Amino acid sequence: MLSLETAISFLGISILLGLSPGPDNVFVLMQSVMQGRRAGMLVVLGLCTGLVVHTTAIAMGLAAVFAASAMAFTIMKLIGAAYLLYLAYGAYRAPVSTADQQRPPALSGRQLYLRGIVMNLTNPKVVLFFLAFLPQFVSAERGAIAPQFFQLGGIFILATLLAFGSIAWFAASAGQRLRSSASAQRWLNRSAALVFAGLAAKLAFSQR
Q1: How many helices and strands in the chain, by DSSP H and E?
Q2: Tag placement on the chain: N or C end, fewer CB within 10 Å?
Q3: Which residues contact 27 (CB under 8 A, 6 or more apart)?
Q4: In the chain, how long is the greatest CA-to-CA distance?
């Protein structure tokens, strides 16, 4: 079992990490601005579901095997980059509407949730981050290692919900005004496409 002091310090550090600029929270921000608070929160839930998978992989030792394979890392990052380019294309081609026009159909809750899962799972940097970060708070003196990893993963997911949820909440409020203007919507779509394309390039050329 983790000590209370360790759990609190890990939660605080995780929240700060969640608020620092990165692909996942930029993704949440753009989705929230473009589609609203509900969309942003569903993406956040999807990202957190991906973290459950990463936590389980760490606890079972599978992540270490993945991190040791250069081919697995390359394949995963290229899949992630391709998915981000797909999102960039979708954002660039997204239709706009004004108050007197019918709005284009929004993505379903399931689609938004799956976007978050895919975004998280296709980012190999998350696995490497977990391998580097979580073991620093684990001690064999406190008992079995795997349960400690699961506890840390649960705390990290809570921190992600708090940090990314805050981003989604405030970004959606700012985006509400922008979404009422066709020209602003067009600017948002182009900006989102540029951001997603930039994230794709960064991921494609990243090194372990």
Answers
A1: 9, 0
A2: N
A3: 43, 47, 116, 119, 196, 199
A4: 65
Q: 40 and 168 in contact (C-beta within 8 Å)?
A: yes
d(CA 146, CA 64): 14
Amino acid at 100: D
Which two structure tokens, joined as six digits, stand for 4?
Answer: 């209370």
Q: Which residues contact 81 (CB under 8 A, 6 or more apart)?
A: 200, 201, 203, 204
Q: Are 148 and 138 in contact (CB under 8 A)?
A: yes
Q: What is the pTM of this model?
A: 0.74
What is the per-residue pLDDT across 48-92, written as a single tens digit (0 to 9) for each? 999 999 889 888 876 666 566 778 678 767 877 887 788 788 777
* Dist CA 67 CA 57 (whole Å): 11
- Using CA atoms, how far apart are residues 61 and 138, in angstroms rounded to an integer? 14
| Structure tokens given for 181 | 């203007």
Q: What is the pLDDT of residues 84-141, one digit of tens each?
A: 788 788 777 766 654 444 444 567 888 999 989 998 888 777 877 787 778 778 877 8
Q: How far apart are CA 125 and CA 17, in angstroms?
A: 14
